[in-house]
Backbone:
DNA sequence: TTATAAAACTTTAAGCTTGAAATAATTGGC
DNA sequence: GCCAATTATTTCAAGCTTAAAGTTTTATAA
């Protein structure tokens, strides 16, 4: 996924773009993962889950988390399990529908996340430092249109 | 990593960009992974390794592969193990330096990859269909400058 | 009702991923 | 030549990831 086109011809530009996109996100992701580990002894998936929950004090269902984070159901189960055992998150069975459980950040989890998120934002600013604010906005716009276009399909 | 900024203020544009970038690549990656599995019964990491080797008939060292694919050493070991057991790749100990081994695609591996790569390119074209060729080139340029900037650090 | 399907979630097996420790081979200084 | 450091790779433990199968609960509808 990270190697270049194997020949030249039509349609290569999008392939090239995809490879660049992937290399860029992998590079940044690897750096962030490493720093999260070193500085906060946590992982990217845990951070993702906490970030999702932080926006929503009333909590999210497991399936909401899964959909939002673009990962499988079973995956979320494991990550939330670990967050629960670390006291950062709670899973509360609901009376209305006993199949579902509402996942929330604990007080501790919320504080911990806020601390990490502030530093994290700085890291991203640093790692994307070579992209001007202007470019950042334009790129974001393009990716947004990709996204909405994507949602139209399937 | 996939949730939005938790507040507003300076430096948010790069954070937003990062989140969009990550969501886009995860979306595309998930789709490609699924298709590779369904259509060719293979995985993204195997495809990556084969793509890297395809460009270089004389082969690559394990450490070259690791560096090129931006993954850890131990990771490559496992993937190459599986490719070897599937007869798609060979690992040849070198006389010059007996610590290293040269990894090459087999005849079969090369044919298999060529077939997959052609279809894969079509998929990428389709999935990035909403990005015009023009935009694709400009975006690629931006990401290229990010890359070279990155290589200057660390 | 009462089966039958659908939904929410968990479990499982296989594979991917990392960082760290272990092995083995080479290189450099003495 | 010899020993320490370096280099290339593998092994390992822990965690992430998916798809598929399983469990429990709720909804549907005859």
Residues:
């Amino acid at each position: 996924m990270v190697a270049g086109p194997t020949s030249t011809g039509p349609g290569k530009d999008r392939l090239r773009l995809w490879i660049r996109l992937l290399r860029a996100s992998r590079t940044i992701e690897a750096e962030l993962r490493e720093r999260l580990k070193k500085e906060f002894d946590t992982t990217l998936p845990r951070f993702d889950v906490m970030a999702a929950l932080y926006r929503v004090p009333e909590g999210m269902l497991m399936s909401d988390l899964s959909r939002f984070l673009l990962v499988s159901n079973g995956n979320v189960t494991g990550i939330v399990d670990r967050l629960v055992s670390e006291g950062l998150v709670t899973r509360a069975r609901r009376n209305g529908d006993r199949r579902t459980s509402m996942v929330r950040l604990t007080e501790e989890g919320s504080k911990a996340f806020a601390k990490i998120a502030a530093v994290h934002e700085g890291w991203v600013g640093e790692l994307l430092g070579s992209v001007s604010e202007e470019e950042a906005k334009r790129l974001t716009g393009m990716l947004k249109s990709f996204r909405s276009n994507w949602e139209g399909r399937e």
